[in-house]
Design brief:
By secondary structure, this protein is mainly beta. It has one domain. The chain has helices spanning 12-18, 100-105, and strands at residues 2-8, 26-33, 36-43, 45-48, 61-67, 72-76, 84-90, 95-98. The strands form two sheets. Strands 3-2-6-7-8 form a five-stranded antiparallel β-sheet.
Amino acid sequence: MRRSLRLEFIGHDLWSLFHVRGMKPWVAEVSFNGIEVIDRRFVEGMTEYAYANKLGWEGVYLYFACEEGRVHEVYDRARLRGPRRVFMVHDGSKWLELQREEAARWPSRSAA
């Protein structure tokens, strides 16, 4: 089953004009070999402007359809302390944030 993950796209206006690397949030389904990521399949996001301010600097959201039970690497910029890259998985009821070691041991870590 697919689950939706919503990330705010801070700075959408600048990215759309200049395509600055590292500004756009992304989500990728990952596979591990031990503790190292060996495969990363990027998930296409859908953009929503319903809550955007006039310039599109904030309130622009990206929605990603992610497979439940699979480990995803998430690059998110909607934080005061700067961007973050985390591993997340949906366990059927909620999104869980995992450390790299936990993500590598997650039961369904191999993508089909």
